[in-house]
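Changelog-linked ticket: iron/sulfur cluster example.
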Amino acid sequence: MTTASTAHEGPAGPEEGTGAAGETPPALMTAEGLTKYFPIKGGFPFKRTVGAVKAVDGLDLVVREGESFGLVGESGCGKSTTGRLLARLLEPTAGTITYRDQDISHAGRKELAPIRSEIQMIFQDPYSSLNPRQTVGSIVGAPLEINRVNPPGGREARVRELMDTVGLNPEHYNRFPHEFSGGQRQRIGVARALALEPRLIIADEPVSALDVSIQAQVINLLRRVQREHGIAFLFIAHDLAVVRHFSQRIAVMYLGKIVEVGDRRAIYERPRHPYTHALLSAVPEAELELAEAEDPEAGADAPKERTARRERIRLEGDVPSPSDPPSGCRFRTRCWKAQDRCATEEPPLVRIEGNAEGHMTACHFPEAGTVLLE
Amino acid sequence: MSSDTQVAAELVGRSPGQLMWRRFRRDRVGVVSGCVVLFFFAVGLLAPVISWLYGKDPQTRYGQIEPGLLNEFGYPVKPNGGIDGEFWFGLEPFMGRDVLTQLVYGIRTSLFIALAVTVLATLTAIVLGITAGYLGGKADFLISRFIDLLMAFPNQLFFVAFLPIVATLFVDPREETPTYVRVVSIIVVLWVLGWMTLGRILRGATLALREREFVEAAKVSGASPWRIIRKELLPNVVSPMLVQATYMLPNFVTTAAALSFLGVGLVEPTPDWGRMFAIGAEVYRADLTYMFFPGVAMVVFVVAFNLLGDSVRDAFDPKTNR
Ligand SMILES: Nc1ncnc2c1ncn2[C@@H]1O[C@H](COP(=O)(O)OP(=O)(O)O)[C@@H](O)[C@H]1O
Ligand code: SF4
Ligand SMILES: [Mg+2]
């Protein structure tokens, strides 16, 4: 890929996020046409497949080395399924997943073994993600044990070190998960994900189950880990507030498809897709400011993008069923700009007129790129 | 120094098993019924010692050897079934054997059979239930239909009909069936029809656990299915397993007793709890006392075991406290 995506229009500062020098890091994980249909069984007396939940339906994305990539969308739009597909916990129905030039779309457990240690996951539910019958020591040490990693000084020492890294008392090595709070449990999950020094961590809504007061602490921990260890993150969230100060590039997902993707500034300052606008308007002003206050670095490297009098968009109705998505553009049933063409022709995810380099939008009648700038 | 050890204890933390044990210890009914159950097991285990201390054995026909114990109709001369300082629980009519040692050895036989069946049924339930739950798909379908099929069997009828057949698998029907063959066939028949309830419970529990994120975390790290079953699933099904096993065991005791009562279980001369009821039913008009001790022992045993099962369940799951 060629360099220089300084084609930023508007009041842009120096290029931030991916490759500060304009150099795009190589792709770490690539998904092309990724599809997952869950069969719906029904019928009497013999169960047969009567339909499919199209949880992920032809999704393309690239996570580059060391970058933090955000994946945002309402609940039920297929984010977790995407994360599980990329972690190869699920078998894709179609499409390819490439990890560092290796096609792992249908690789079995044995084939995946060498790269298992490079891709780790952090889960949403701190209660379900830790085995209640194991001590913290064995939970965090399990990845080492499974992969027969023998760090110098022994596994226990390494686990204690990891506990220290994530802000847990290493002396709690022999404690059980039920003795920890939600936030501490999530730290245990982070320590487990770090144990093998992965290159990519898929974090599926890692803070959405936590108290708001705890969320910022865990987010800051993840940011620190991401920067210090240079780990690439696929950070899944259901709103744009959390990824706002975590991800350099963000993809917005709706009903199994990516509708808009771009770097942070493009998404927050110059969103083009109506759905992105709707998601942005749902982010409370206070939360954006709070986030910045807690995160001085973000305040420094992001221009003041307080979108003071942002328009309020209330999305009508519910997300349509993924088993029978609308024809053409899937967002059209809730889109205020929808026209006849939207029902017949599916908008491709492309760099539309007026978009910066790397900013792609799937919409026939996109919003003007400057709406959110006063 | 004591504060040091206290700090150390705090840092070690309490496992869910330890917490369960603490809750159980606070449950008075549970502790008492647990002691009763232990008492029965001790009696079974120590039957020879009891017999030796007491100076009688279950085979000697005291009533026939010593004159003056049984009358001309074969019933004990003394009132209350012949209870006295020598024969504490009385004498068996006709045969004239000692009831106490008969009962003690009968409990020993019954508990041995029930324990063996419980262990086998639990192992079968673990293997088939967890396989069905974890693998899902075809394996689950086959195992679940197999469970349905076995559950549809009319148990008692099956036992009565098949016990003799099972025995002939081991020996020629024209020969005398050795005791161990009878014991083995009772165990096999009870086992084959005894594991399904627990199997279903474990299948359901595994199905739910399989979706838990800690199993996915193990998979993401590359854990083998065997490791996931051993380290992630099994420790989490210990509670339903223990609870169900405590309900299962007294059930097997009473079923085995029923088989002996119906005449397809153990035969003379093996002392057997259930057969004492058969004898008691024959003689109850003339000698009601004979039935008393085996009957009371059986009721106490079954009630204590079921109360223990309830307490174990409550201790494992404090939310379901009555
Ligand atoms: N294992 C599964 N079987 C059937 N349907 C599923 C399964 N997992 C997810 N789905 C369905 O796929 C859709 C997307 O789910 P999910 O990926 O969890 O969304 P999100 O994480 O964005 O909330 C939902 O409609 C959900 O019901
Ligand atoms: S393609 Fe049409 S319906 Fe879809 S988002 Fe754009 S304007 Fe709305
Ligand atoms: Mg989700």
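Closing comment: Example verified and attached. Chain A touches chain B at residues 84, 87, 89, 109, 112-113, 116-117, 119-121, 123-125, 128-135, 139, 142-143, 146-147, 171-172, 174-176, 178-179, 189, 192, 196 (CB under 8 Å). The pocket of iron/sulfur cluster (ligand 2) is lined by residues A 274, 329, 331-332, 335, 337-338, 342, 347, 363-365 (CB under 6 Å).
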